[in-house]
Amino acid sequence: MAVVLADLLAEEHVTLDLRARTREEALREIVATMQGDGKVMEPDKLLAQVITREEAHSTFMGRGVAFPHARTTLVTQIVLGIGRSHDGVPFGGGGELAHLLFVIAVPQRMVTDYLVCVGALARLVRDDETRAALDAATTPAEFVERLRVGSLLLE
Q1: DSSP code of 15?
Q2: Which of 15, 34, 48, 81 stands the most exposed, by the fewest C-beta atoms within 10 Å?
Q3: Domains of the chain
Q4: pTM above the 0.85 mark?
């Protein structure tokens, strides 16, 4: 059964006020939210894998959005962690700022599901109205609900 973006959204994996000033600090904050429910084995190793992947090829997509990820054996299902920074975190090669970071841990065997997930997220955040709604969300529950409603409209 294919993964549906709405099923990956968990408010406990959302940080609305990243304190990070660097890419690595932001990734550390987000990965920390992903470890609480036992879905991520060895979060420090996952963080290292995400950073290594990011150093090899930036996942900054422009418009203030990045999709750092790792294909890994440290998860048995796709796990999504989200961070929002109003000030922005330096990301990408040109010093661009990321305001929305979607960290995705994906099992090696679920590449197609990962692509569906990233595609749905990319379509959602490409829309100015959706990004404004995500920026205005005041709680993780509200943030997740706005993504969930948007993802259902894509189906």
Answers
A1: E
A2: 48
A3: 5-154 (3.40.930.10)
A4: yes
